[in-house]
Amino acid sequence: MMEEEQKLVKGKNLEGSEGKLELTVDEVVEEYVGSLGFSQLVHVLLVSLAWIFDAQSTLVTIFTDAQPPWRCKSGLCQGSSSSNSGSVCELVPGTWEWIGGHTSSTIAEWNLVCDRRFLAAVPASVYFLGSLIESD
Q1: CA geometry: angle at 91 spanning 119 and 102, to 5°?
Q2: Is this prediction's pTM over 0.70?
Q3: 44-89, pLDDT tens digit by residue?
Q4: How many domains does one find in the chain?
Q5: pLDDT for 83-135, tens place per residue?
Q6: In sequence order, what are the residues at sequence separation of 6 or more whose Cβ sits closer than 8 angstroms to the Cβ of residue 127?
Q7: Is residue 61 a part of any domain in this protein?
Q8: What span, in angstroms and rounded, lies between the C-alpha atoms of 76 and 58?
Q9: Which residue spans within the chain are E strands per DSSP?
Q10: Nearest CA to 77 among 97, 95, 94?
């Protein structure tokens, strides 16, 4: 057994037959990339900074798509089932209001309901369209 181990030199058998070389992932990375140092940390930092802009653009849709709760003003919403169960588009404008006021969300502030609902998706769509064009 000891003789076979001596015939293996870096994965190659001196007699021409194939030998097995077992490497771990850590050994391969350290051999080709090097141990963790300043240059690897700078590289990780720069790559992480690039992802911040993608993440921000993706996560902004969470806030623009969240419709705040609403309620009827003094029983003016006659014929509607109850607040928040139906759509405000089915009601007459001015008969309902946002519970947190107009500053409670982006949708409430910019009135992105009913026929203006598509405007909430425009910023993300333009960003990803620009990313698609830039990648070519």
Answers
A1: 50
A2: no
A3: 899 888 888 778 877 877 777 778 888 888 777 765 544 455 688 8
A4: 1
A5: 455 688 888 888 888 888 888 888 888 888 888 888 888 888 888 888 888 76
A6: 57
A7: yes
A8: 38
A9: 8-9, 12-13, 70-72, 96-98
A10: 95
pLDDT digits (tens, 9 = 90+) for 2-17: 554 544 445 555 555 5
Domain with 104, as residue range(s), is 54-78+88-135
**Is 116 a member of any domain?**
yes
SS3 35: coil
Examine residue 106 and state whether it is found in any structural domain, yes or no: yes
- Tokens found for residue 22: 């077992």
- C-alpha distance across the termini of the chain, in Å: 57
CB 110 within 8 A of CB 118: no
Cα–Cα distance, 88 to 92 (Å, whole number): 8
Residue 118 lies in a domain: yes
Residue pair 105/67 in contact (Cβ under 8 Å)? The answer is yes
Of 98, 92, 93, 90, whose CA–CA distance to 66 is shortest?
A: 98
CB 85 within 8 A of CB 99: no
